[in-house]
């Protein structure tokens, strides 16, 4: 290789063509166009939402600690061990036993329950839908006061103070 000429290798060892078409020389700087932490964590929440069997509303959630590590994920669905075919997925029925809201565990609650560490105080929650009142109370109770919600530009942070989201 001549000095000053970049080799273009797919493994990026000596030089690489970036997604945006720019080229870098090995060791001269990071690539451009990579995801921000916020976009990365929101993408995880959106991916979790794709696990929901709910035909009307698919919600996902990711809990992230101060070191940018995902410590919990969840999506809306029936409790563990309950078949997705045994209970109703309808909403708005006057009979509470025929209404999904009686049975569904929300994504935020599932993420808190599924967390990989004992304490989530000070963590950030990324969710694809604004938490309901019951989830907001649980989120406050566990000390997670920073929430980013999909659809608010750019992921407006909702600071929970005194039980108000």
Task: Describe, in plain words, how this protein is organized in 3D.
With 165 residues, the chain is of the alpha+beta class. Helices cover 18% and strands 17% of the residues. The strands form two sheets. The chain has a five-stranded mixed sheet, sandwiched between helices. Strands 1-2 form a two-stranded antiparallel ribbon. It has two domains: 1-34, no CATH class; 37-159, Cytidine Deaminase, domain 2 (3-Layer(aba) Sandwich), CATH 3.40.140.10. The longest helix has 13 residues, at 37-49. The chain has three helices and seven strands; from the N terminus they run ββαββαβαββ.
In short:
The protein is α+β, with helices and mostly antiparallel strands and 165 residues long.
Notable features of this structure?
165 residues, alpha+beta, Cytidine Deaminase, domain 2, 3 helices, disordered N terminus, metal-binding, zinc
Give a topology summary.
Elements: E1 15-17, E2 23-25, H1 37-49, E3 60-64, E4 70-75, H2 107-113, E5 124-127, H3 133-141, E6 146-149, E7 157-159
CATH class division of the largest domain: Alpha Beta
The side-by-side strand order for the widest beta sheet comes to: 4-3-5-6-7
Q: Gyration radius, to the nearest Å?
A: 21 Å
Roughly what percent helix?
Answer: 10-25%
**Count of the separate structural domains:** 2
Total beta strand runs: 7
Q: Order of SSEs, N→C?
A: EEHEEHEHEE
């Amino acid at each position: 290789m001549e000095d000053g000429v970049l080799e273009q290798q797919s493994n990026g060892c000596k030089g690489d063509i970036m997604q945006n078409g720019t080229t870098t020389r090995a060791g001269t700087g990071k690539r451009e166009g990579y995801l921000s932490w916020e976009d990365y964590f929101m993408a995880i929440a959106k991916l979790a939402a794709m696990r929901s069997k709910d035909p009307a509303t698919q919600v996902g959630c990711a809990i992230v600690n101060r070191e940018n590590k995902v410590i919990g994920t969840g999506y809306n669905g029936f409790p563990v061990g309950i078949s997705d075919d045994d209970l109703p997925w309808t909403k708005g029925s006057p009979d509470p036993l025929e209404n999904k809201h009686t049975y569904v565990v929300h994504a935020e609650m599932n993420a808190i329950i599924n967390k990989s560490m004992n304490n989530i105080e000070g963590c950030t929650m990324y969710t694809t839908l604004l938490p309901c009142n019951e989830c907001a109370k649980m989120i406050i109770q566990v000390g997670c006061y920073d929430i980013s919600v999909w659809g608010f530009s750019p992921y407006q942070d909702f600071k929970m103070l005194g039980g108000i989201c």
